[in-house]
């Protein structure tokens, strides 16, 4: 059986992500030979591309004018009827597909009518409007008027104004100097293409001069002006009149204009940069001269394209897990949301729930893998955000788990063994020791993540431990061996010693350790490790250090340390207080009872120091040496000599694990005497516990 993670490494394979999306494009008619709409995505495998125009996929195989260059769409021999519209790019690979933002392709064309224009006759002092006759066009235009000859342009002031909304030239009060030919010039802001209209003659009438009259507002803004968030909003207001009217602005609510608001062209133009919600509301333009005043009113309504405030991230989920994604966008009006999977509309069904910007997929399966997009839209714009869902399904696999085959631990410590195979969904785990199925006990904990924890380990815990992991796709196991060893202790270290300068000295270092460990020794002088190659020092018998004739600079403290295979040493415990304690058993019964008591004492000691470690009250105890003396010449004791040997043999294993081993059976003229020595570690240091005696 093959699984997704067997054929795809989800860390290296991934679906498309946009590097570049198409932008709106305005093309001047007749100028370029071709136009290019950009589209580029990253992904592995490398994405492929397709394009749509007004929602219909473009068949590039049958289209000789359009071709792909990478992901870019190149259009030759452009045709307004066939090429103008809304384009969208799709990037896809075997993991899924995503849609780009929508981009418009428009054509900028300026086509003034070629016929000549009639002269405009006015009286001196009269106001006049010269029409530009703006041609049909696409794109943003900029207007200017030429006076008589190019490049002499009409200079705008309080009396003359060129509207960038209508393109017309407004003269509030005509003077004799205004007589001449006027030509409207239109420039496309994007393509920089410009065109000139036919000239319009302005002549003065001879039937008199225009008298004074109140302002007549010819240029004003609509009753309702939609304004986009962050845009530059421009309001125009210009009036004809004699005398030339003065223009002023105010807000309907009486609030003063913020500092960012600018007045241009003798207050004819009100400009609000970076329009925000607080800039919306009523605005008034007042035109006034000595003959009267007129006012126009209008409102600026705030709107905003959708903008992301919360998006989702790529997700890799195990089969049967739950997917929850949520996206949120700001905007006015409030955006609506839709979800796409691989470029196709996603609907609520069975396991799939869609509510506003939230998508929930209950218990994902392999068919849910792919590229998802959250789409936020209002009447002013539409935005897309994409994320990839990878669904993982595989049997347990320990090949990527780095675990030690042999785990060493000291008696009394806690051992933790992990069982974390790569598996999707997560496996059910169990543990065996040898062939024995393990269950949780007071000392053994089987954790929910597959880990086994054993506290206060003993030699009984030595063995092979196998973790079995299984899910619906298969089963796997891994085995490691646990070795439990006794700690290494320094039983005799160097003590304060006075010595005559020039003499040699031997400093002892006695240890007790587990027989299975290789022990190495190191020495420190005033906290600094000694160089074993220094000829001033010499190791004797592996456990003692001989120092050749000393001088006064050496009259300081020396310390010894022994370390086992796991690096533990007693270097930090050498100055611990040592206390001698005795436990004495007084026997007044018969020799048989005496011996039985002695036998029970030894049995008790043997059981308490089982596996070379035991608890005597608050002490952690280990055997250092054993000495038993029996008077075998006493006929009453003869039956028990064999028993004494059995008892001492019972301690044989413990005795062999010590670097000191004195078990002696001797002939004494009378009595019986036994001694058992221990080294114990308490909560606050080391103690020596010795002399268990029967007399």
UniProtKB/TrEMBL annotation:
UniProt xrefs under InterPro entries: Ig-like_dom, Ig-like_dom_sf, Ig-like_fold, Ig_I-set, Ig_sub, Ig_sub2
Location(s) in or outside the cell: Cell membrane
UniProt keyword list: Cell adhesion, Cell membrane, Disulfide bond, Glycoprotein, Immunoglobulin domain, Lipoprotein, Membrane, Repeat, Signal
Domain named Ig-like: residues: 16-106, 122-197, 215-301, 306-390, 396-485
GO BP term (any one): cell-cell adhesion
Record Gene3D superfamilies: Immunoglobulins (2.60.40.10)
PANTHER family according to UniProt: CONTACTIN 3B-RELATED, PROTEIN SIDEKICK
Subunit structure: Interacts with PTPRG.
Protein name: Contactin-3
The species this protein was found in: Bagarius yarrelli
């Amino acid at each position: 059986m093959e699984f997704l993670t067997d054929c795809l490494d989800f860390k290296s394979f991934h679906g498309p992500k946009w590097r570049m999306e198409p932008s709106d494009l305005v093309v001047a008619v007749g100028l370029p030979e071709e136009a290019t709409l950009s589209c580029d995505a990253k992904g592995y495998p490398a994405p492929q591309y397709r394009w749509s125009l007004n929602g219909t996929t473009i068949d590039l195989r049958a289209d000789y004018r359009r071709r792909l260059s990478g992901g870019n769409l190149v259009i030759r021999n452009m045709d307004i009827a066939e090429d103008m519209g809304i384009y969208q790019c799709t990037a896809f690979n075997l993991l899924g597909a995503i849609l780009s933002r929508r981009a418009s392709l428009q054509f900028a064309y300026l086509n003034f009518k070629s016929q000549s224009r009639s002269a405009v006759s006015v009286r001196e002092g009269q106001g006049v409007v010269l029409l530009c006759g703006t041609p049909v066009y696409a794109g943003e235009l900029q207007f200017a008027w030429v006076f008589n000859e190019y490049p002499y342009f009409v200079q705008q002031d309080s009396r003359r104004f060129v509207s960038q909304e209508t393109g017309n030239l407004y003269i509030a009060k005509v003077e004799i100097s205004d007589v001449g030919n006027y030509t409207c010039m239109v420039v496309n802001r994007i393509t920089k293409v410009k065109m000139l209209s036919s000239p319009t003659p302005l002549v003065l009438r001879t039937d008199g001069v225009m008298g004074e009259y109140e302002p007549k507002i010819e240029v004003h803004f609509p009753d309702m002006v939609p304004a986009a968030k962050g845009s530059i909003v421009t309001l125009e207001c210009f009036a004809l009149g004699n005398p030339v009217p003065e223009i002023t602005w105010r807000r309907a609510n009486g609030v003063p204009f913020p500092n960012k608001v600018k007045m241009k062209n003798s207050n004819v133009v009100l400009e609000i940069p970076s329009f925000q919600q607080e800039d919306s509301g009523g605005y008034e333009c007042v035109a006034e001269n000595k003959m009267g005043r007129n006012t126009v009113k209008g409102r600026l309504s705030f709107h905003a394209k959708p903008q992301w405030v919360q998006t989702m991230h790529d997700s890799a989920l195990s089969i049967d897990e739950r997917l929850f994604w949520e996206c949120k966008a700001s905007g006015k009006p409030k955006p609506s949301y839709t979800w796409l999977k691989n470029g196709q509309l996603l609907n609520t069904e069975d396991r799939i729930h869609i509510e506003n910007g939230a998508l929930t997929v209950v218990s994902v399966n392999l068919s849910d893998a792919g590229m998802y997009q959250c789409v936020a839209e209002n009447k002013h714009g539409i935005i897309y955000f994409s994320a990839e869902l990878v669904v993982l399904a595989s049997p347990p696999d320990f090949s990527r788990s780095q675990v030690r085959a042999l785990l060493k631990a000291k008696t009394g410590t806690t051992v933790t063994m992990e069982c974390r195979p790569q598996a999707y969904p997560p496996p059910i785990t169990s543990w065996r020791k040898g062939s024995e199925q393990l269950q949780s006990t007071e000392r053994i904990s089987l954790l929910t993540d597959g880990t086994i924890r054993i506290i206060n380990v003993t030699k009984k815990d030595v063995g092979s431990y196998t973790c079995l992991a299984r899910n619906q796709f298969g089963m796997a196991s891994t085995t490691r061996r646990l070795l439990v060893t006794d700690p290494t202790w320094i039983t005799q270290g160097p003590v304060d010693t006075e010595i005559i300068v020039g003499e040699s000295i031997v400093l002892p270092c006695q240890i007790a350790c587990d027989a299975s460990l290789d022990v190495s020794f190191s020495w420190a002088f005033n906290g600094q490790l000694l160089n074993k190659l220094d000829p001033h020092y010499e190791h004797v018998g592996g456990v003692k250090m001989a120092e050749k004739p000393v001088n006064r600079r050496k009259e300081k403290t020396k310390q010894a340390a022994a370390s086992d295979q796991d690096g533990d040493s007693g270097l930090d415990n050498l100055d611990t207080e040592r206390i001698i304690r005795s436990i004495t058993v007084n026997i007044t019964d018969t020799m048989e009872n005496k011996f039985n008591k002695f036998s029970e004492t030894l049995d008790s000691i043997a059981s308490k120091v089982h596996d070379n470690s035991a608890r005597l009250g608050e002490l952690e105890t280990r055997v250092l040496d054993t000495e038993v003396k029996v008077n075998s010449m006493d006929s009453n004791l003869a039956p028990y000599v064999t028993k004494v040997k059995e008892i001492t043999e019972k301690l044989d294993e413990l005795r062999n694990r010590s670097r000191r081993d004195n078990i002696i059976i001797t002939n004494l003229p009378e009595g019986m005497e036994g001694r058992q020595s221990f080294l114990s570690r308490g909560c606050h240091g080391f103690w020596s516990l010795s002399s268990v005696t029967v007399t």
